[in-house]
Amino acid sequence: MLVEVCAYSLESCINAAKAGAGRIELCSGLGEGGTTPGTGLLSLVKQNISIPVYAMIRPRGGDFVYDAYETETMYAEIEEVRKAGADGVVLGALNPDGSVDRGLTASLVKAARPLGVTFHRAFDLTPDPAQALEDIIAAGADRILTSGQQANVNLGIETLRKIVSLAAGRIEIMAGAGVGLSNVEMLASAGVDCIHLTGKAFRRGRQTYFSAAISMAGEQPDERSVMFSDPGLLKEVTALAQKV
Q: What is the pLDDT of residue 180?
């Protein structure tokens, strides 16, 4: 199975490439679950690694129902990441009832071509995964990132198996959320095409002074820590994924 690493920094991208990963999903907005990365970072990543880099196209955190301003922003971001050298994009749009916004998704996919396109975990918020699968296939995306509509792939494994079966090779299914050494073989047995992880670890930052009155904590434990993709863990996961 191909291993995709979700990365938020140049360091993490380099770690992933050295560990043998097959693709990067490059994001900003860690605390928001991933938003569009800056093109400066994307350009620098492309100068330093040779594996494909897919840029997240998400103008904000929150839900996946977008207004006209946000839609225009996504089209503009697709064009900017294309110019910066992205090999693909990661996107998704839903209707208020949670169904896939097939028209907008298809239009975004068309705007992105010939870049590759992954439909992100907005899929996991749809009420009917079988219908969502068909809508995304019809919209022209290359793959779907999903946890099996659960908090992690362990809980969603049976749904992942069903999605793989329903897809029947018409679109790639990539498993993500809680992926690690303990479940690579299980995911391989479910038939997914690739796996997705951050391989996150934290280290103490370089700053020594902090005000006791202020915290800027998001998903990270606090601003005293720096998140990075652990090269040792990624190497182990990649080696195992290549064997199964």
A: 96
Strands of 106-164 (E only): list them.
116-119, 143-146
pLDDT band at 86 (very low <50, low <70, confident <90, very high): very high
Q: Count of CB atoms within 10 A of residue 34's CB?
A: 21
Residue 125, pLDDT above cutoff 70: yes
d(CA 56, CA 23): 13
**What's the length of the chain?**
244
CA dist 5 and 15 (Å) reads: 10
What's the domain range around 33? 2-205+215-243
The CA distance from 196 to 154, in Å, is 14
pLDDT category at 221 given cuts 50, 70, 90 is: low
**How many separate domains does the chain show?**
1
Give the contacts of 228 (CB within 8 A, at least 6 positions apart): 9, 11, 12, 15, 200, 201, 202, 203
In a domain, 38, yes or no: yes
Structure-token pair, residue 74:
């996504």
Q: How confident is residue 213, by pLDDT bands cut at 50, 70 and 90? A: confident
Residue 210 maps to a domain: no
In a domain? residue 200 = yes
The answer to the question of residue 150 being in a domain is yes
| Region at 132 (left for phi over 0; alpha for psi -120 to 50; beta for the rest) | alpha
> pTM of this prediction?
0.94
